[in-house]
Design a protein that fits this description.
Layout: E1 3-4, H1 10-17, H2 34-48, H3 55-62, H4 66-69, H5 76-88, H6 100-118, E2 125-126, H7 134-145, H8 154-185, H9 189-203, H10 210-223, H11 229-262
Helix pairs in contact: 1-5, 2-3, 2-5, 5-7, 6-8, 8-11
Length: 263
């Protein structure tokens, strides 16, 4: 199930995101606030998944009536927007990061991966129309500063951040699924292999698939599993950064090439 941000009423969503009006009416309970409601909603989503999120579930966690929430949050669509914006505010944004642009992008990638691991429900949220909240704006601005002043134009800067973010989202999905596999199936990776390997051996012909046999055995021995999400993330991240480095290098030599052509 995929939920979409940006589906709420624009005026109400922006008001709650930027806290321009804490209450929608004057009848709110003094012990409730937008922050408390959002915190409870995140706890529900963390524990049960985004599909289980409802205004009723949030109210139960807070020990209040469901209708009392609407004094502060207009509805579930607006709640999703502010939840997403709120957790984006958890990402660390240090100013001094060693390693130049590459070190800064590495940190951004690792922070985003950690965010998905803490809140797996974010992987079931489509933010192609992102909540225009303060945390998301601040996060985007910080990420752009990682590649500012290195020879890229504005569109290329945005594209690099989008590339890294897209890579992390895919890697995070694999990592979260691997982490949840044991709980969902009741079997560890090792138990799964021991259960399947005797039957697989009866139908698999190593001579027919020599590369799969050799490489699969080497990878399985290295990872002690069919898939190691940590290794996959690190390997892929470095290759993405290598590609960005090559692109930055190509941008740096273009003026010289152009000058030679003119001469």
């Amino acid at each position: 199930m995929t939920e979409y941000t940006g589906r709420g009423d624009p005026a109400r969503s922006l008001a709650i995101l930027w806290r321009t009006g804490e209450r929608a009416s004057r009848k709110g309970k003094p012990d409730l606030s937008v922050d408390l409601i959002v915190r409870a909603a995140v706890e529900v989503a963390d524990a049960e998944g985004i599909a289980a999120l409802s205004m009723r579930k949030v109210a139960e966690r807070l020990g209040v009536g469901t209708m009392s929430l609407y004094t502060y949050v207009p509805g579930k669509a607006e709640l999703l927007d502010v939840m997403f914006d709120t957790v984006c505010g958890e990402a660390a944004m240090p100013e001094d990061v060693p390693g130049g642009w590459r070190g800064r992008l590495e940190l951004i990638a690792r922070e985003n991966l950690a965010l998905f691991r803490r809140h797996p429900w974010m992987l079931h949220i489509s933010a192609t129309r992102p909540p225009l909240g303060p945390n998301i704006v601040a996060k985007y601005d910080y990420e752009l500063r990682a590649v500012d002043g290195i020879g890229l134009d504005d569109v290329e800067m945005d594209s690099v951040i989008t590339l890294v973010g897209g890579y992390v989202t895919g890697a995070a999905r694999g990592a979260v699924e691997a982490a949840q596999a044991e709980g969902s199936t009741g079997m560890t990776d090792e138990e799964w292999w021991y259960a399947h390997s005797p039957f697989f051996a009866k139908v698999f012909d190593p001579a027919r698939y020599p590369l799969a046999t050799r490489v699969g055995a080497a990878a399985g021995e290295a990872h002690n599993a069919a898939y190691d999400p940590g290794h996959a993330f690190e390997f892929g991240l470095q290759r993405v950064l290598d590609g960005i480095e090559t692109f930055i290098g190509s941008r740096a030599v273009r003026p010289a090439e152009s000058g030679e052509a003119e001469r």
